[in-house]
Amino acid sequence: xxxxxxxxxxxxxxxxxxxxxxxxxxxxxxxxxxxxxxxxxxxxxxxxxxxxxxxxxxxxxxxxxxxxxxxxxxxxxxxxxxxxxxxxxxxxxxxxxxxxxxxxxxxxxxxxxxxxxxxxxxxxxxxxxxxxxxxxxxxxxxxxxxxxxxxxxxxxxxxxxxxxxxxxxxxxxxxxxxxxxxxxxxxxxxxxxxxxxxxxxxxxxxxxxxxxxxxxxxxxxxxxxxxxxxxxxxxxxxxxxxxxxxxxxxxxxxxxxxxxxxxxxxxxxxxxxxxxxxxxxxxxxxxxxxxxxxxxxxxxxxxxxxxxxxxxxxxxxxxxxxxxxxxxxxxxxxxxxxxxxxxxxxxxxxxxxxxxxxxxxxxxxxxxxxxxxxxxxxxxxxxxxxxxxxxxxxxxxxxxxxxxxxxxxxxxxxxxxxxxxxxxxxxxxxxxxxxxxxxxxxxxxxxxxxxxxxxxxxxxxxxxxxxxxxxxxxxxxxxxxxxxxxxxxxxxxx
Amino acid sequence: xxxxxxxxxxxxxxxxxxxxxxxxxxxxxxxxxxxxxxxxxxxxxxxxxxxxxxxxxxxxxxxxxxxxxxxxxxxxxxxxxxxxxxxxxxxxxxxxxxxxxxxxxxxxxxxxxxxxxxxxxxxxxxxxxxxxxxxxxxxxxxxxxxxxxxxxxxxxxxxxxxxxxxxxxxxxxxxxxxxxxxxxxxxxxxxxxxxxxxxxxxxxxxxxxxxxxxxxxxxxxxxxxxxxxxxxxxxxxxxxxxxxxxxxxxxxxxxxxxxxxxxxxxxxxxxxxxxxxxxxxxxxxxxxxxxxxxxxxxxxxxxxxxxxxxxxxxxxxxxxxxxxxxxxxxxxxxxxxxxxxxxxxxxxxxxxxxxxxxxxxxxxxxxxxxxxxxxxxxxxxxxxxxxxxxxx
Lengths: 494, 392
Fold this sequence. Notes:
The complex is a heterodimer of chains A (494) and B (392).
Chain A: H1 9-15, E1 27-34, E2 37-44, E3 51-59, E4 64-74, E5 86-90, E6 97-104, E7 108-118, E8 121-131, H2 141-167, H3 179-216, E9 224-230, E10 235-241, H4 244-247, E11 254-255, E12 263-268, E13 274-277, E14 280-281, E15 287-291, E16 298-308, E17 313-322, E18 328-329, E19 343-345, E20 353-355, E21 361-363, E22 367-376, E23 379-380, E24 383-384, E25 392-397, E26 403-406, H5 414-425, E27 457-464, E28 469-479, E29 482-493
Parallel strand pairs in A: 9-18, 21-29
Antiparallel strand pairs in A: 1-2, 2-3, 3-6, 4-5, 4-7, 5-6, 7-8, 9-10, 10-15, 11-16, 12-13, 12-16, 13-19, 14-15, 16-17, 20-22, 22-23, 22-27, 24-28, 25-26, 25-28, 28-29
Chain B: H1 2-15, H2 18-43, H3 52-78, E1 87-89, E2 92-94, H4 96-122, H5 131-157, H6 160-184, H7 197-217, H8 223-241, H9 271-283, H10 289-315, E3 347-349, E4 355-357, H11 363-389
Antiparallel strand pairs in B: 1-2, 3-4
Helix pairs in contact in B: 2-3, 2-5, 2-6, 3-4, 4-5, 5-6, 6-7, 6-8, 7-8, 7-9, 7-10, 7-11, 8-9, 9-10, 10-11
């Protein structure tokens, strides 16, 4: 019932402007291994803080007798202890599926420390998640109706109790109140009506204030400024984080994910052009810069994935208009070498990637299977890792309210996982644990510790989308040194 | 002699209706259940619908609600003359206190779906003072007030020693109401905040209203003092008993090592302003209610302020960090101990991270407090006079 004091103070200050690693998508998926036990973890985040996360763990091995999950809060400058681990209960009627509900009590970055017990062996894996407020709940009709009825009973019942209390309760048993008292009881009723109405009015205002304070605490993109600079040779995109909390150093610094300090998608307003580029940080810690891809003039939307030293990962957003005739001349910027992993898609009709069993529409909340096959002149392409992953995918809703960046390993930040796992494996994440091209339950083991996918297949964990609408997903793979990017459109219906 | 006295008390206890005990048990269960529940949240953190403290609170609500419903239905449909003192409410007949308690039970029921939705919308129980919690608190208050009104009505119709015995029960019942408000005021009453204007404003208005009300409703010469003493004794017992039991946090992050139940904050020393109210109540013979309220209000304000101002300094000192005062054991697991843990605070943060300043005490602020205390003492004297007259 109680939860006050300093608990929310620092975390709220530090993180109050952040977004989730994805936007409009509260689920975290992980495909990989705990030790040598393949598993798939699905975390449905509550979207409120404190809130209850639903966790399901499917292990692809027999003999697993227990799974535990412990939420470990990661702070910038505070050390805290964690509560005892929760035991994930086996799901009845399912093989090797375990589920747990876990309270995430504080804002910020959490490491879900998962232990898999197989006989005498105990294997561990870390699932990084963000505990943030992302939604505004609306009361459903049934609850609303029940509460209105009860409020009515309390309101009119309360007024009548005070009326009866004034008129009758002080009268000796067996007597009736006098005429004057009866008349005055109407005045008492009127005053009580006003008093109760004032309470309801005041309560509503108070509720609105709490709601407003809550909404202000819903994570928003770190404020940033975009400039297109030209040094006389080439156009560059510069992103400056101007958010007050960041500038004042009250937010933990960044760590590289897949070796890049920032992963940035530039997507045209028409969804026809996409670039996946990796700006470098300048001497000014707030400014990131990259060479512009060869895009046409137009409006572009930015999605910038960042991971902080606390393991907190989020996506910063912005929109800018690109006009090659209207750039800021800045001869001081040196020519930035283009990152070798930068890639983009222009208005080409790429058709080498096939989305297996793609449906034109999916029901909201259903699993959307994301299995792809890449061919080259009719034969399966040999895929190689692209930025330490078998493939990358960016998913965007047509109104841009949902953005998800996912890999075959899932939606987690690999940098966060590596950082958390370092605590107990004494080293960086073993490549054998990374699901490069596909599913953790692949019996051939082809998708783990493999430098290539010889059959041209790359699979991402299925995702669930709750909001109906039109979506686009861009899939990126690498074959023969070339990054292949292809867009697919689909619809989610209720 | 002692034997005779003990027999008399037993006889007196037997002579009053059994349902009075059910009301008192329900009231006690509700109050103790809330205190346990708050300590549970500060110590263990994780709870569920049927956690032990919740069960105690539900039991209180159920005992009260079922007893009242039984009394009302029986009198309305089976035996109209069951209780000679009843009021008619929407066609139903029962003692007035029953309707107050039934209202309280419905308020408790209302708070359940409201609180559940609140958790889903804004997160789990970010603070004590929230709209659904205040609906629940209103329900608790109605149950406690109903019990008190029941005792007053019984007392007003009783004679001799029975009247005196019911007066004692009334004072106990009144002390539970003071405890309930002390619980509601928890977030304003940390020793660290006891040099702020906000603490004195909310404490003086509420406590002066309650103490003056009960003073006017009671017969005992030192009723206000006894009620305040019972309130302090109740809180002390909770402070001393809860930490005897082992418990550990089941939620994180954990910033303070806790291995036993966390105690509530030390109660305000209400007994001294209450004694002043008792003495003045008998000394002042003037009939002007406003003037009387002004004198009592000023004295209440001065005594409460002087006592609590200095006592707060003691509570933040090392001398209070022991089992008796529990100043080092009334801090939840989620609070990080630091250099400011035993300092006075003049700013705070809302659960959603907004900072707000707390006002310091000034002469002007003290003047305002005095005016507010006079107003609430005046209102309390009205309310108490009405309580005193309840006969049904």
